[in-house]
Design goal:
- With 167 residues, the chain is an all-alpha fold.
- It contains five helices and no strands.
- Helix content is 77%, strand content 0%.
- Helix 1 runs antiparallel to helix 2 and helix 3 runs antiparallel to helix 4.
- The chain is elongated, with a radius of gyration of 17 Å.
- The two termini are 22 Å apart.
- Bound molecules: MU-OXO-diiron.
- The site of MU-OXO-diiron (FEO) has 8 residues, from helix 1, helix 2, helix 3 and helix 4.
Length: 167
């Protein structure tokens, strides 16, 4: 059985993962309308993965005697300035997610909930990979700059790139 503070912390994390999924879905749809099919494919997939992260938490809360709360979400942006700004937003968003995951881990230690602490380690590892991936993509985009040919190749490459961390 999880304690009320842990239940609350996990429910906040459910909302964060749902928001991530929605945010990346908005990015994917925007990229779709810009002829960036590879980028959009990558982001649609990433959005699906965030939904899996959310579901994994929902199942865990309910299995441990808590009650998962399905959150209401704000409308994400419909427009983005550029591919660069999309991935800059994504990277910043993931850094915030990492901070929030760390808060949940902190709460587990305070509450001496080592079972949830153990469960959360999957998310801790996932954040390392997601931040590294976003940083890598931003480095590539910085090299490409305004080169249209480079962007074309980047789009193709991203369409075939495996995201990871399906929950
Ligand atoms: Fe669910 Fe992007 O971490």
């Amino acid at each position: 059985m999880i304690s009320a503070p842990i239940e609350n912390a996990l429910n906040r994390q459910i909302e964060t993962e749902a928001r991530s999924s929605q945010f990346y879905l908005a990015m994917a749809s925007w990229a779709d309308t810009q002829g960036l099919s590879g980028v959009s494919k990558f982001l649609y997939r990433h959005s699906d993965e965030e939904r899996q992260h959310m579901l994994k938490l929902i199942h865990y809360v309910n299995e441990r005697g808590g009650k998962a709360i399905i959150p209401q979400l704000d409308k994400p942006p419909a427009d983005f300035d550029s591919v660069q700004s999309v991935f800059k937003d994504l990277f910043e968003h993931e850094q915030n997610v990492t901070r929030e995951i760390n808060d949940v881990v902190d709460a587990c230690l305070t509450e001496k909930d080592y079972t949830t602490h153990n469960f959360m380690q999957w998310y801790v590892s996932e954040q390392i990979e997601e931040e590294a991936m976003a940083r890598n993509i931003l480095d590539k985009l910085a090299l490409i700059g305004n080169d249209k040919g480079g962007l074309y190749l980047f789009d193709r490459e991203l369409g075939g790139l495996e995201t990871h961390g399906e929950g």
